[in-house]
Give the backbone structure.
Amino acid sequence: MTFFLQSFFSGILSGLAYGLLGLGLVLIFRASEAFNFAVGEFLVLGAFLFYIFYFTWHLPFLVALPLGLGAAALFGALVERTTIKPLMGRPHLAMTIVTLGLANVLAGGLQATAGSDPYSFTLDLPDLTVELGTLIYPSPQIWAGILSLVFFCLVLLFLYRTRWGLVIQATSESQPKALCFGINAQFVLLLVWAIATVCIGAAGVVIANLGALSCQTSLVGLRAMPVILIGGLDSIPGALVGGLIVGVVEALTGAYVEPMGLIGFKEVIPYLVLLIALFIRPYGLFGTVRIERV
């Protein structure tokens, strides 16, 4: 039972980071119905921007984090202005295809700039290691859960308690109606991409703190796909629930299945869970069911 609890709650802490990563994709999909396949590269870029301020320039954490994520937000806004805005009014699939090309361009740029060697990434934060008998949860895991949950709550407060958050929700519901009420849908899309990039970059920081940072860290971005497809492409609570499911399933598989000889199976299990979930709920657990007349 102790072994199960160790794995289960470790999966919960990792799942919170996955949920924050999925939140960035959900925000973009709700605003533009496009899927950002460059999520892994955005994750690495956001973490590297923070790395520059914190590890290279030796700024305090509470200064480096806002600066790094602010730089990530500016990058997300730049990407939206240069690649997404010109496609407004065209099929949503066009935006999704553009992000595929963007992923390749960013991957090449990061490889050329940062190289393939891993960077040591250990945040100098207070030790919050939890020891309950034989249960041990290292401080980086605890901080990953705390920071992910804090950012998730901050985004929710912005969306549901601020004027601009309500504007974003209105535009996400219907861009034509938003335009009729005088809402600048183009600026809203810019704002959404900036906020989504902050979420993805913050997830990159906490995930890198669990190990090291390298261009290969972008592979973690693939976890966002089962996360949001299980939870629902347009559901913010679904991103959190999907992240927790993926994190727990991964942890339990690594603890119980891989020791039986199935090495690497925990990399596959989220997609098997995704297939099962889609058979039961094609629009995800919390996704909006859409009925289209032909």
Observations:
- The chain has eleven helices and four strands.
- Residues 38 and 103 are 4 Å apart (CA to CA).
